[in-house]
Design brief:
- This protein has 3 domains: 81 residues, Orthogonal Bundle (Arc Repressor Mutant, subunit A), CATH 1.10.10; 167 residues, GAF domain (Beta-Lactamase), CATH 3.30.450.40; 103 residues, Enolase-like, domain 1 (2-Layer Sandwich), CATH 3.30.390.
- 47% of the residues lie in helices and 17% in strands.
- It contains 14 helices and 10 strands.
- The strands form 3 sheets. It has a 5-stranded antiparallel beta sheet, sandwiched between helices. A 3-stranded antiparallel beta sheet has the order 4-5-6. Strands 1-2 form a two-stranded antiparallel sheet.
- Helix 2 packs across helix 3, helix 5 packs antiparallel against helix 6 and helix 6 runs antiparallel to helix 14.
- The two termini are 27 Å apart.
- The N terminus is likely disordered.
């Protein structure tokens, strides 16, 4: 993984702080037990006193990297602490990346496998090697594409965006007209219609034939100078278009490994288990956008996307981390590979596992075609 840190850790932590934070995160991931200064002195060669480590743990807690589940306990990583660890202090285990590629190659070589069967097996292999919930979506080889868009005024301050896809599905979205187009004089209605007609032509020239996955790659910052005053309005339209297209996608998702991950101590509370199972079984439409739609900014910075704990927008995912990566047909992303596990996840292994699985599936699609 080529990670772009969310911030420069050296500006926040000196070398000792980094080493103690790394050891604390690693020990907690391995044991699920809060980590104290005595444990770190005993098991790690820091060459400093227990008092020094205790003082450092206190500073890390004050800075928000660690917290105490209760007063007499040691510390455990916060979501922010995990984020700093993953982005700055962790070394991915490339042996695991090679291992899953070997397993996939050995078990999916049979020519009798169609791609859907291969995805099912890949999901099982990924779950077994990681110990977490593996998710792989079937490829969207023919996603809904935009065929026609038209802005129609419905009042002096609102317009209706009419959307037609290549399957001739239609959808209307009501949007607020930008202030620069609003006129109090009703006689200016013809002028407004003409301006919306010009904007409609521009939208069609930019968006016709594009799918949801391709919309993520559009850059309205480089908009034509003639339309620069409408940049914010166009960005808002794009977000609403993406929301519409998300709801129109029918994507199958393979899931494996639920029983294994529910044995983790983080899922000892029945309510958390029920929420996660309900999400996986009944609300996949809410989960799909989290693993399918990776922002362009994140694609530029790393091969995988990682949402840790409270970074997840869904409440049922807050005790979890979600790692995902897209696999491609050519250069177009058509599906995603993901892992769900507790925030106390072995990130060194899981990140390269997801990345390598996505790479393998991209290669497999290329060989089919």
């Amino acid at each position: 993984m080529t990670a772009q840190p969310i911030m420069n850790v050296t500006t926040l932590l000196n070398q000792r702080h980094q080493d103690i934070l790394r050891a604390t995160v690693q020990h907690y991931i391995a044991t699920a037990e809060p980590v104290g200064s005595k444990t770190l002195v005993k098991e790690y060669d820091f060459m400093v006193s227990s008092a020094t480590i205790r003082n450092t743990l206190g500073k890390l807690e004050k800075a928000g990297f660690l917290y105490q589940p209760h007063t007499s306990a040691g510390r455990i990583p916060s979501d922010f602490g995990y984020r700093i660890y993953v982005d700055n202090l962790m070394t991915p285990n490339q042996k695991r990346a090679k291992q899953i590629k070997q397993n996939l190659s050995q078990q999916l070589q049979q020519k009798t496998y169609n791609f859907e069967t291969a995805l099912q097996r890949a999901t099982q292999i990924l779950a077994n090697l990681s110990g977490y919930i593996a998710l792989i979506t079937l490829p969207q080889t023919s996603p809904n594409q935009l065929r026609h868009l038209q802005l129609i005024p419905v009042s002096s301050k609102q317009a209706m965006l009419l959307v037609v896809t290549d399957s001739y599905q239609t959808q209307s979205i009501v949007v607020d007209i930008p202030a620069s187009l609003v006129r109090d004089n009703e006689e200016e209605q013809d002028w407004l219609e003409e301006e919306l007609h010009i904007l409609s032509n521009f939208l069609n020239s930019q968006l016709k034939g594009k799918s949801l996955l391709e919309l993520n790659h559009l850059d309205w910052e480089k908009i034509d100078q003639d339309f620069i005053n409408y940049a914010d309005f166009l960005k808002s339209l794009l977000k609403q278009l993406q929301t519409y297209l998300k709801t129109s996608i029918s994507t199958q998702m393979m899931i494996h490994g639920v029983s294994e991950v529910l044995r983790q101590p983080e899922f000892s509370q029945l309510q958390q288990v029920q929420m996660l199972l309900h999400l996986l079984e009944e609300e996949q439409d809410k989960l799909l956008p989290l693993i399918l739609n990776i922002p362009e900014s994140e694609l530029c910075n790393r091969r995988v996307t990682l949402k840790i704990g409270t970074e997840n927008p869904l409440e049922s995912m807050r005790p979890c981390s979600l790692i995902s990566a897209t696999y491609c047909q050519g250069h177009i992303p058509v599906g995603s590979v993901g892992l769900i596990g507790p925030t106390r996840m072995l990130y060194e292994n899981t990140i390269p596992l997801v990345e390598s699985t996505a790479d393998y599936l991209s290669e497999a699609l290329a060989s089919i075609n």
